[in-house]
Amino acid sequence: MAISQRLIDPSPSRKIKAPISYDWQGSYQAALFETDWTKMQERIQTAESEIHKRRLVLSQDHSGTLEEREALVNAMGGLRVLRMDAASWLERQAGTPKKPASGSQNSTAWSPNAPSTLRVAAGQD
Length: 125
Fold this sequence. Notes:
By secondary structure, the chain is an all-alpha fold. It has a domain at 41-92. The protein has helices at 3-8, 25-33, 40-61, 66-94, 117-121. The protein is elongated and about 55 Å long. 14% of the residues are buried.
C-alpha cells in the first residue's frame, strides 16, 4: 500500500495516537521552559503542587489512564532533576562572585553553560 493511500485510508489495525494534553502539563512545561533561574523554584513548586493535586484525585476516584499516570511519574522525576539544577545554580550564585570579563553581560537568564539536564528532554537541544 502506498504512503499516500495509507494517509487517506489508514488500516484499522494501525491506530494513530494524537498527543494527549493534561491540565497539569501547563505548569510543568512552564517550569521546564523557564529561562530565569531566579523564578525556577517558584515554577517547580507550582508544577509539583498541580501534579500532587492530580495524583490525589486519581487515587480517590481511580480515574485517568495508564498513560497519564506514567506521565505524572515522569514529570515528577523531571522536576526533581530540574530542582537539583536550580539548587546548583543558586549555590554558584551564593559563592564569591567572579568579575565579568570586559564587554560581557552578567545575567541570571538561561545560557548554554547553565545546568540544562532537562532542556534536551524538553526538545531544546
